[in-house]
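Hi P.,

Sorry for the delay on this. The queue was packed all week, but I finally got your sequence through. Input first:
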Amino acid sequence: MAVYLMMTTLTDKGRETVKENPERIQEVNKEVEGMGIKILSQYAVLGAYDFVNILEAPSNEAIAKVAIELGSRGTLQTMTMPALSLTDFIDGLKQK
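Then the structure:
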């Protein structure tokens, strides 16, 4: 399975939801896992994004579906990037 970084930013509606019900984050995690995505790590961060999520998914299509589903709720915006392990990256550079 492929690894992806999904950075999320809460909207005003999302900040209100998290303030009123912080456990909602874990509820959403269960929904994401129900869509076949494994959450490897998750961090609340300061700066341009509110959360950084390291996810494992079977395909680009599967991760895109999650991003669309979450974004369509109006509580967050996502930026998702595929990630390569350093070993895979170095091995790819060595191939001729």
